[in-house]
Amino acid sequence: MTHPTETPTRNSQVVNLLDRMPPAQRDALEKAARAQVQDSSPAGIADASTGTVKLSAEVDGQDLPVVEQIDETTRRRLRLHLPAALVSREVWQHRRAVVTHAAGYHASRSHLYAGRLIKLSAMGLRSELASAASYLLVSEYGEMIAEARVEAKRKGHADHSDVAQLRAERRTVGRARRRENLTVLSATGVTSYVAAVVAIAEVWGMALATPALLPVVGVMYACGLREVRRRSEPYVIFDQAAADEDAPLTDSTINAALRKIKVLGEEEIAELIGPIRAVTINACEATLKLPSGVTAPRVIAAREALAEALNVEPSWLDVRQAGHPNRITLWIATSDPFAETRVSPLVEAPERQDVWGRGIPIGFNRRGETIYLKLKHVMALLGGMSRTGKGMLLRSIICGLGLDPRVNIRLAAGAKPGEHIGYSRVCATFFGRRPGRLDLLLDALLMEANRREEFLEDEGRAKLGERDLAQFPLEILIIDEGQEYTQNSGPLSADIVAKIERLAGFAAALNIVVFLVTQDPDKNTVPRKFKSNSAVRIATKTGSPTQTNAILKEGATGNGLRAHEIPFERKGQTIVDIDGAEGELMRSYFIEDEEHDGAEPIITAGRELREQCGRAPGQFADPIEDYLLLATGLSSSGGGPGGRGKPGRPEVTAEEATVLDVILGAFPSGADRVPLEAVRTELADWDQQWAPRPEEEAAAYAGRIGKALGDALDKELEGTGVTLEPTRWREDSGRVRGYLKSDVEEAYEAARKIQK
Ligand SMILES: Nc1ncnc2c1ncn2[C@@H]1O[C@H](COP(=O)(O)OP(=O)(O)OP(=O)(O)O)[C@@H](O)[C@H]1O
């Protein structure tokens, strides 16, 4: 949605009125604008310019959609004056949950309650009958008579007068009691009542007699209660619904849990500030004032024990300080907040991103809030075991970076470059599995860092800022499967590690970021100095506490950051230690990667945005690619001429590339020969038909490719009179088969001439 604005006169300024709207109204307008553009765009997605202010001159003659906003303030005015406890939908939602839970809880226990009521009533009836009988039979005289008899026996049966006298007295008192008005009335009442109930039952049946029995039940219950109190025995008929395992949160549950973990003393109370609110389908939030002497950090430190006391997993509970150190907000879920996969917002809205200021949306925390990754003046590290979601996280990051044209993405894949081919259209540099080229790329970045430093020196400044991005774009070098370069590149590994560490030491403030992604992180795969300089640390599931410590802060596992305890089946669950989310558990956003390429529309939007700004690969002066081209004669801008992560001669486009181009591209810089094995890898990277088939034996694969290569070369060299055959030479490891560069260059020239 575009708002036409008058072209500004000199010294005037364009003001974005959206910035002045209340957040709710702005969100509604943004949503409506996006829906409008989605409806009117052929692909059904909002374009990258949604939300961009344009001047009237820029949109002259265009048919712009109009989004109407209804002013809801008047309708809401009354609501504004009522307390939140009465009008808040979330509060009522929580209350409904409490009542519904209590009703279900008590209904399921009704048989227990009936049993306890009958027991209590029987106890009451028994005790009342016993005391009535004791009254009417004057049983208190029984003891006195027994004592008189013992006394008489002691005196040798000489005198029985006391016993006789007491018996006579008992008879007189008993007679008097049985003639008392109350006794007579009670007996008459009870017999009349029983007769009436029997008569009702006989005439109208038991159904009508039952309500007539209710007073008896009530009286018996009251008698039972009196008896229980007299005995001072605890007797509970109705259980507490709030104490149930899956009961919605109430203040009594919270207080009981805080007392159980000894954060509160027996007499202390944490008071609710405002009502408890339902915040998502499965979670609610309460704000509490703690008693004096108990602070929020103390409760936060005891989070895990509190979770246990509240019968939930630690990841289902979040405790934060609510401004004052004596106040906390407590957020609790009734089921795993990470159970559900969430699709990246970039899929729905592939719009311009602000990597510098706001960051890239990479995932959501337990509260469902979006976590943004800012790549400003930092070095970044991402590690974890294989198949734990590193690639997916990188997917969100590269898509986000692609949508900010101020960023130059340099992607060096240590393995599986095929996984990244889709990103090549927004990558200033992209290549796979080439330690030599990465070494050169690091040299180029070090030179660029020096150039930027000289600029700062001239300017008298210490670091580059956002306003310098037009002149010095944010250079982000992503090294995926970094272990292949830092550990498995033979003699080059040491050079690569040393250069990464050097860059990490001083380039962050120069808008140069190294983002190292590594499998099975440890001391060998993560260079020590790089780690100590990285302010962005992200761990997917790791294999051990040592691996967790290799990514997150030293002693991270002791601080509760236990990436090795993340369940393997919860793909994408991650611990991030980044600006704005220190040591926070999150789950990465999902962008479809198996059924279809869900990143494709985002990368297309990023490419279009970059083309509009003249910032697509190849469109701008790029000293780093220039350096690589000069050193190797090959370009990897936009993933090389084929866009497949294979550097090639810049003059050859993907459609024009031939097998000869691929063989020529397989020679490492400065080498005069290349083994057949390297040629096969190069061909497989270029086109899937050259890759090994599933379960194909190495020998069968070599035979198939040897034949196909021979045929393809014959075809390309047809009519030239030149043939190209592999040669054998001796190396330390034994005899090697491959091509000599002079032979390939001769064949290449011959083929070129005939094509002309
Ligand atoms: N946040 C997520 N939500 C849902 N599924 C995910 C998420 N992250 C990853 N997955 C799924 O988990 C699987 C493995 O993810 P991914 O390929 O990113 O792992 P990886 O760590 O990069 O593995 P490797 O190191 O072997 O390349 C994929 O099938 C992916 O679809």
Molecular structure report:
With 756 residues, the chain is α/β, with parallel strands linked by helices. It folds into five domains: 78 residues, no CATH class; 122 residues, no CATH class; 93 residues, Threonyl-tRNA Synthetase, Chain A, domain 2, CATH 3.30.980; 231 residues, Rossmann fold; 98 residues, Arc Repressor Mutant, subunit A (Orthogonal Bundle), CATH 1.10.10. Helices cover 44% and strands 14% of the residues. The protein has 25 helices and 20 strands. Helix 5 crosses helix 9, helix 22 crosses helix 23 and helix 22 runs antiparallel to helix 25. The radius of gyration is 41 Å and the shape is elongated. The structure holds adenosine-5'-triphosphate. The site of adenosine-5'-triphosphate has 17 residues, from helix 14 and strand 17.
